[in-house]
């Protein structure tokens, strides 16, 4: 255990499974007390908390559906009440739905923008009011923000928004010594990817074929980069979008 985040408080949104769960576990391993946010899967969040506690760490599960604006305030308040002022915020909660131009609907648009962009902004706004002196915000974006792949007009647009927001907030929050960076994963095999059927078949083969490292990513590989950006090892890094895509651009 490196304990590079010893004594720090971290809030990870959408942390009941997949990349979010891996991030929560890694931050706890590095010494942070972690608030594990979930929208619907209390069992998943409780399981992540139990794993952290079994390893001697400190964690709580915090409910909050980022599609509901009032929940941003609630989940930050519960985190601060239980663990103290926040040092690290990881905006991981998000949804994705792919669809070609002809099938895009207002519902498809708003569902993704409400969580991926508005939810992220509202949680960040509230958390920034409760940050310790300095700190780190890590936004989970996506390689889709720059790849311009077919059927990702709306999802890719949400993540391009996240990239821009990252740069803007890095400048706005710099006077308070709060760093803001984004991690842009490529395809990672998670529960959500499996549910969507993307973990095997043509889409994965095509992506692996054009990825220089020749494979998809692991959730732990994303978590390791997030932990670096959250730590003082990245003390002079802000406003960056770091693509963790195996070289795929």
From TrEMBL:
PROSITE patterns found in the cross-reference section: ADH_SHORT
EC number, as in UniProt: 1.1.1.-
Keyword terms of this UniProt record: Oxidoreductase
InterPro entries: NAD(P)-bd_dom_sf, Sc_DH/Rdtase_CS, SDR_fam
Domain of life: Bacteria
A Pfam family of this chain: adh_short_C2
SUPFAM superfamilies for this protein: NAD(P)-binding Rossmann-fold domains
GO molecular function: oxidoreductase activity
Family, similarity comment: Belongs to the short-chain dehydrogenases/reductases (SDR) family.
NCBIfam families hit by this protein: PRK07231.1 (NF005559)
Protein's recorded name: SDR family NAD(P)-dependent oxidoreductase
Organism: Rhodopseudomonas telluris
Taxonomic path: Bacteria, Pseudomonadati, Pseudomonadota, Alphaproteobacteria, Hyphomicrobiales
